[in-house]
Amino acid sequence: MLGKKLVTAQKRGETRALCLGLGMIACSMMMYFFIGITIVPFYTKSVWTTETVCKVLKANIKDKVSCPHSESSEDEEIFPYPCLQVWVNLTASGQEVMLYQTEDTLERNPKCSYVPDKLENSKEVKARIETIASNFKKYQTFLCYYDPGGTQTSVILSRLYPSKGLLFAFLWPTLMFTGGCLIIVLVKISQYVSVLSAWQ
Questions:
Q1: Has residue 156 got a pLDDT over 80?
Q2: Cβ–Cβ < 8 Å for 54, 155
Q3: Per the UniProt record, which residue ranges are transmembrane (predicted)?
């Protein structure tokens, strides 16, 4: 009687472990799919792939502007911000080009190097842009990204999704998938050992 209860409890535990392993594999596949349709397209679409050294030529703050390419243009007009324009010398080609914070900055407003969040306080935005401009004037040489194919003449300070970030995004679903497979393999080994012991 006790032996039957132990066998039943063991089978229940194995079933739960198998469900856990299959659930982890299913979740990891969903995460792979989500990363594949969100992060990967932005990474592959970016043409700013080569890193080089940029030297600041001038960093000026123009009059307040509104983002012309925003979907909610009315909200942007309510929140104008100072337009920071940073021009750099591209070491790779020796050209004078405009610097943008990320790929998204160029799409939101090609006139400005930095586009703040419209929900931020106007005084804080002004102070932040002035601080950014002074930092560019202070640290005139830094690493930036440019388009080696020449389709984009501008450069960006940092990529939204760099190679390390993409690998880090794939790390967690890979660990979950590996853990799920390991659980299933261990359960199968346990079942095989149990059958072999009972046969002997």
A1: yes
A2: yes
A3: 20-43, 166-187
Length of the chain: 200
Q: What is the pLDDT of residues 123-135, one digit of tens each?
A: 888 888 889 999 9
In this structure, the answer to whether residues 168 and 101 fall within a common structural domain is: no
- 13-24 residue pLDDT tens: 778 888 899 999
| Residue 10 covered by a domain | no
Cα–Cα distance for residue pair 22/115, rounded to 1 Å? 44
In a domain, 194, yes or no: yes
Domain region containing 183: 162-199
CA nearest to 58, candidates 102, 113, 101: 113
**DSSP assignments along 122-144, one per residue:** HHHHHHHHHHHHHHHHHS-EEEE
Cβ-contact 85, 59 below 8 angstroms: yes
